[in-house]
């Protein structure tokens, strides 16, 4: 029986993947950012595309941990590393967008906060639960 950690890690990373996926595909097809927000870029590409990759990686690894050969410890270590990278990435853009918003240079956000802030929240939660996951439980005969 797999620990609840793997289910939570998968669910949270799937939620992040779906949200970043929506933002990414909206940008790709509508040629503008969702929710009438500014579109932060990194290396010339929308930041949400990088978020999609980071959340997607954690989602796939968590799924493999849940149903495949990866142990809970391996999955958690991977998720700690990737979510920490996501915290730095989303934190940087969230800080920039909120500073611009407070200075009166950005529109009001339809979701209350910049979309990067919601990604940041997911990264922080995944990071926190990945620090000390429950161990795999071996079924007894």
Largest sheet: 2 strands, antiparallel
Shape: elongated
Structural class: mainly alpha
What is the CATH topology? de novo design (two linked rop proteins)
Number of H- or I-type helical stretches: 4
Distance between the termini: 13 Å
Which bin fits the share of residues in helices?
Answer: 55-70%
Q: What sequence of helices (H) and strands (E) makes up the elements?
A: HEEHHH
CATH class: Mainly Alpha
Strand content: under 5%
Number of domains: 1
The overall average pLDDT, rounded, is 90
Low-confidence stretches: none
Main sheet: strand order? 1-2
Walk me through this protein's architecture.
By secondary structure, this protein is mainly α. The protein has one domain: VKOR domain (de novo design (two linked rop proteins), Up-down Bundle). It is built from four helices and two strands. The longest helix has 31 residues, at 72-102. It is elongated, with a radius of gyration of 17 Å. The protein starts with a helix and ends in a 10-residue tail after the last helix.
């Amino acid at each position: 029986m797999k620990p609840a950690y793997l289910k939570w890690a998968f669910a949270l990373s799937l939620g992040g993947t779906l949200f970043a996926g929506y933002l990414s595909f909206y940008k790709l097809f509508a040629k503008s950012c969702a929710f009438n927000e500014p579109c932060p870029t990194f290396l010339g590409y929308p930041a949400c595309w990088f978020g999609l990759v980071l959340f997607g990686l954690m989602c796939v690894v968590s799924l493999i941990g849940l149903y495949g050969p990866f142990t809970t410890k391996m999955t958690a270590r991977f998720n700690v590393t990737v979510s920490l990278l996501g915290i730095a990435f989303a934190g940087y853009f969230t800080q920039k967008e909120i500073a611009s918003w407070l200075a009166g240079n950005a529109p009001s956000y339809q979701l209350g906060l910049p979309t990067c802030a919601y990604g940041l929240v997911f990264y922080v939660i995944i990071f926190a639960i990945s620090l000390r996951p429950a161990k795999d439980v071996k079924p007894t005969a």
